[in-house]
Write a structure and sequence with these properties.
The protein is mainly α. The protein has 2 domains: about 375 residues, Sodium/glucose cotransporter, CATH 1.20.1730.10; about 60 residues, no CATH class. The radius of gyration is 21 Å and the shape is globular. The termini are far apart.
Length: about 475
């Protein structure tokens, strides 16, 4: 057994043990769904940043840096920009509404503003897309375990899936918030130590700047390869209206906790955004002919730094993926239990029954996510489906629901229908290239806004 493998196994056992311990404090759905609405700015910061720095922001973004260069910064940078909007405007406002009306999910908010039909439609869309979140993280975990131990993908997905399913099922948001704090500390320490050592090992920035590239766009910060500023349109809206992030905000004790906690998360993302890009460039110097660009980060941590540092770095990446995977399960399971089971299938279910269904949904959804991870080709590919669907279906209805009182069911339904149908048509009609310079997700959000506006204008104020 290698040192790196021993560290990862020991760390996994620690996370599971902590999750089971905290889970003993969970006595009902209020604890599981919104942590009793008592999270302060520190826990909000750690659980938000831990969820946002996941497999796509580590293994995936490093792979983009390896392949596309400086423009890969926009993958994490766009998430930071969306988080700023969430911290200053959207988050505090929706938290107050959630507390006033005892809301537990984003579906609760959508029904409050637009009725049960809109809740049902958006819940169905998000269930399909949200499976991509834990699946993407499990792909990243399997990539790491493959490099460290030679485990095949299916075995790595099973190991990672087992860890996150056990500790999340124990206590939901309450468990995740505390486990995420440990994970975040490991992430920060791992990358802070590994990055300068990996850079020094290849001869410093001067050597990295001389790496041979096939295209000069590798050094273009705005656009290079398939990366660039267009990620802003794909990711920023998703990080403003993501149900998983909004429901974490429901758990905040007051507006100050939201502004400070989510704001610090945004600053953390901005500071971190360049780390995977530089790691990818270091990997290109050290390993110029990788068969898969998403192997860049685990290869650097295994072979580009001392073993003990590499072990810490691998634990940091493992933490990133596990924390983001539990955020995905949080979205799925709370929505299934509250938006489907409690609202439509068994309205008379008591709190204890809903909690049991939620835990069962966590096991079921986690199992499906493992299966999806085994068959999906890349991290960025599978998560892009989720971010696109999230933006076009929720961005306009949630913002309008918060700020436009006269907005109702017809506007929300038109927005969702126009946005999703346009994104799907443009994606398949152009092979994902977009139309008139607009990527599919941007075309979808534009169509969603126009659909909302047309119906809003056509309805008289007296309706």
């Amino acid at each position: 057994m290698t040192l790196q493998l021993a560290l990862l196994l020991g760390y996994s056992a620690l996370l599971v043990g902590l999750g089971l311990l905290i889970g003993r404090r969970v006595s009902g759905t209020k604890d599981f769904f919104v942590a009793g609405r008592r999270l302060g700015p520190g826990l909000i910061f750690s659980t938000m940043l831990a969820a946002n720095v996941g497999g796509t922001s580590t293994v995936g973004a490093t792979g983009l840096g390896y392949r596309d260069g400086l423009s890969a910064w926009w993958w994490v940078g766009s998430a930071a920009m969306g988080s700023i909007v969430l911290a200053l405007w959207i988050g505090p406002r929706i938290r107050r509404i959630a507390e006033r009306h005892e809301l537990k999910t984003v579906g609760d908010f959508l029904e409050l503003r637009y009725g049960r039909n809109v809740r049902a439609i958006t819940s169905l869309l998000l269930w399909m897309g949200s499976l991509a979140v834990p699946a993407a993280q499990l792909i990243a975990i399997s990539t790491i375990l493959n490099v460290v131990t030679g485990l095949p993908r299916y075995a790595g997905c099973l190991v990672g899936g087992g860890v996150v399913i056990v500790y999340f099922t124990a206590g939901g948001l309450l468990t995740s918030a505390w486990v995420n704090m440990v994970q975040l500390a490991v992430k920060l320490a791992g990358f802070a130590i590994a990055l300068p050592l990996a850079l020094h090992a290849v001869g410093g920035w001067i050597t990295v700047a001389r790496v041979p590239v096939a295209n000069v766009s590798y050094w273009n910060p705005w656009h290079g390869g398939d990366s660039g500023w267009m990620y802003l349109a794909l990711l920023a809206p998703a990080f403003i209206v993501s149900p998983g992030l909004l429901q974490k905000i429901y758990g905040a004790r007051d507006d100050h906790a939201v502004r400070l906690g989510v704001g610090l998360n945004a600053i953390g993302l901005l500071l971190y955004a360049g780390v995977p890009v530089l790691m990818g460039m270091i990997a290109r110097v050290r390993f110029p002919s990788l068969p898969n660009h998403e192997l860049a980060l685990p290869m650097v941590l295994m072979h580009g730094v001392p073993p003990i540092v590499g072990g810490l770095g691998l634990a940091a990446v493992f933490s990133a993926e596990i924390s983001a995977a539990d955020a995905g399960l949080f979205m799925l399971t709370t929505s299934l239990a509250q938006d489907l089971y409690k609202r439509f299938l068994n309205p008379a279910a008591d709190d204890r029954r809903v909690l049991a269904v939620t835990r069962g949904a966590a096991i079921g959804c986690g199992t499906v996510a493992v299966a999806l991870a085994i068959v999906s080709p890349t991290i960025i590919g599978v998560i892009g489906v989720f971010y696109g669907l999230l933006g076009v279906s929720l961005f306009v209805p949630i913002l309008a629901g918060l700020y436009i009182r006269r907005a109702g069911t017809p506007e929300a339904a038109a927005s969702i229908a126009c946005g999703v149908s346009t994104m799907v048509a443009v994606h398949f009609g152009t092979g994902g290239r977009g139309v008139f310079g607009l990527p599919p997700a941007v075309a979808g959000v534009t169509a969603a806004s126009l659909g909302f506006l047309v119906v809003f204008i056509s309805r008289s104020p007296s309706e």
